[in-house]
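Re-run with default settings, no changes from the original entry. Doing this only to confirm the output is reproducible before filing.
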Amino acid sequence: MTDEIDLVARERPDVAPYSLAAKAAVRRRLADPGGRPARPRPRPYVLLAGGTALLAAAGVAAVTIVLTGPETRPATVSPGVVRLPKVSAMSAEEVLGRAARAVTDLSPRDDQFVKVSSQTMYESTVVGEGEKESRYLYRTKRTIWLSADGTRDGALKIDYLEPRAYPGWPIPPEAYREKGTEWMRLPACDSVRDTAYTTLKKLPADPEKMRAYLYDRPRGDNPPDTGAWTAVGDLLRETYVPAAQRAALFKAAATIPGVTVAENIEDAAGRSGIGVGRVSGGVREEIIFDPSTYELLGERGIVVDEKEAKAPAGSLVASTAQLEVTADDTAPEVDDPHAGCG
């Protein structure tokens, strides 16, 4: 099995490899765009790649869960506020240009799987009895196996972590209902996910054409620049963009208006990095790079406009970390009666 560390050791000993992005912004239930009903699971299947975004135009990704029943655990409140990011004198062109020059390629074989491990935290909304709404921060560790050529079933492992309070809100008892580990099968016939390495290899390798692609992607009600920045995160999250296309993506991202740099910010694993981001809906949506290797570490959403985002300035409302990216010969076989197409 070959991973990025091996590639760096052989081909680029002075530069660490680019890893896959860990954010994303709209989460969706496990249902296709054609409107098939969601799986009968206790909560939505949170899929972080192929058409999702870490941070939505309104500020953060949100999952709405409708639950009823008695309270099972007392609520607690945590401020969840960190230091506001300080814009650096470094330009987005400089940081993303270095990231583009540092890329390497995992180069999985068609019969292999891209395996991505990450840690995530996103906003989740709970609607309980009497349509009373609550918010909290939903946290997981995830490992996903994706067929390199899209012809084999993949798998997703979710380890549920202790939830955290959404700034200014108590943690609802329902936030503690999901515990332990859950496995899901990702059927090859699920055309919703255009995340196969061989598919991504067909994307533009020219920065200008990649920029046009970013602006042409579906963006809902988002303004064009917000939609383009969201698309950057979509292409980096829980998948693996080949080196030529990834370099073009970083160069194209640097041309999106409003993108600036902040230094000394942390990903979900506590690693310090350089954040390249822009503000939307009162939230600064950042992609985080290692300051020395320009390896992609993760993503972050932090409130910078309290009035617009409806949360205290400095509130951390989304945070991820990409922990490992490798090529595996096999994926776990998951007995999942809910998985399937048709």
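Helices lie at 4-11, 92-101, 197-200, 207-216, 224-236, 243-253, 306-309. Residues 4-328 form one domain.
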